């Protein structure tokens, strides 16, 4: 479940372990905060004075922060860690009481669980009440129960999963969601198109449906047209993207769109396709595919037959091949 993956993520960050958290390495600094005359020895303190104030066996905040930031340190995070992970560890050094215990759930604004084999978005996610971005790419999720999603969520990325049905996701979707990423899933047919409207996603700005199995361009556009705030749309990789008038029809049908399939829509392109949306008869249910074979190795060339001498008794050998494409 995503809760289990989150707990593992926290454990890897080591927020309660040296040099983070509360321990013998900084106990006097935080005991002083409860004293009437005590003050916090933070990063703004005088370095020389702070060195004198640090008791024997303890470390200053600067020294602890250096252990996190020095890439040669055994406590340094990997180079590919997120800025939030680095920020959380720095908070665990400077203000460890803020992220102690269940308080850590209120700190998270973004959560990235990628390639961890997650197949369930459970209700434990609701503990992250302030979460605004949830990245769950490359897992094994087939369904998402919207009741288990934090209500403040603005970004939901589900790329490279096994989502085939949007019904559960649209039962009680996060009202402020601005980006929905559903690329490389198993969505298809009009049963799923009906969930891609403003009734479910009134604030959606960006939608990724790439590499699914949508085939009905007219039906899909009729649903997407209700998304008045939609500015970015990705549909490449679907069968409907093979229709010859695909891009022009979308550009004219969705006049508020800025980017289609990662390509910015220029004003001259919009002018070029003006009026195409009012000519659905041009939307023929066929696809145009051009295949070019650059080189084939390991088989004789049938066009390079050697000329046999007149009267030769050698047998004639003919080569023929059949090339098949499966869609």
TrEMBL record:
PROSITE patterns: LRR (PS51450)
Cellular component aspect of the GO annotation: cytoplasm
Keywords: Leucine-rich repeat, Repeat
UniProt-listed InterPro entries: Leu-rich_rpt, LRR_dom_sf
Record flagged with keyword Chloroplast: no
Membrane-crossing residue ranges in chain numbering: none
Protein name (record): LRC43 protein
Organism: Scopus umbretta (Hammerkop)
Recorded name of the encoding gene: Lrrc43
């Amino acid at each position: 479940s995503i809760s289990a993956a989150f707990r593992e993520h926290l454990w890897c960050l080591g927020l309660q372990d040296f040099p983070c958290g509360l321990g013998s390495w900084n106990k006097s600094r935080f005991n002083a905060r409860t004293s009437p005359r005590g003050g916090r020895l933070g990063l703004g303190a005088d370095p020389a004075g702070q060195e004198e104030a640090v008791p024997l066996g303890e470390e200053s905040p600067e020294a602890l922060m250096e252990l996190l930031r020095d890439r040669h340190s055994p406590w340094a995070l990997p180079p590919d860690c997120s800025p939030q992970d680095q920020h959380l560890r720095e908070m665990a050094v400077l203000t460890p009481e803020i992220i102690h215990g269940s308080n850590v759930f209120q700190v998270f604004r973004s959560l990235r669980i990628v390639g961890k084999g997650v197949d369930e978005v459970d209700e434990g996610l609701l503990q992250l009440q302030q979460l605004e971005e949830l990245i769950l790419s490359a897992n094994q999720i087939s369904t998402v129960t919207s009741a288990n999603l934090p209500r403040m969520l603005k970004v939901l990325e589900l790329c490279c999963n096994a989502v085939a049905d949007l019904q559960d996701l649209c039962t009680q979707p996060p009202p402020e969601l601005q980006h929905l990423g559903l690329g490389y899933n198993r969505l298809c047919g009009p049963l799923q198109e009906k969930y891609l409207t403003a009734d479910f996603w009134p604030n959606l700005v960006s939608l990724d449906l790439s590499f699914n199995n949508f085939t009905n361009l007219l039906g899909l556009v009729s649903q997407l047209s209700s998304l008045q705030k939609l500015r970015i749309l990705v549909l490449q990789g679907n069968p409907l993207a093979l229709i010859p008038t695909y891009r022009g029809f979308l550009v004219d049908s969705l006049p508020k769109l800025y980017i289609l399939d990662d390509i910015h829509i220029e004003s001259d392109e919009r002018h070029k396709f003006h009026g195409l949306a009012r000519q659905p008869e041009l939307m023929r249910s066929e696809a145009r595919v051009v295949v070019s074979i650059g080189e084939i190795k390991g088989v004789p060339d049938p066009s390079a037959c050697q000329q046999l001498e007149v009267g030769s008794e050698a047998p004639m050998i003919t080569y023929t091949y059949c090339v098949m494409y499966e869609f």
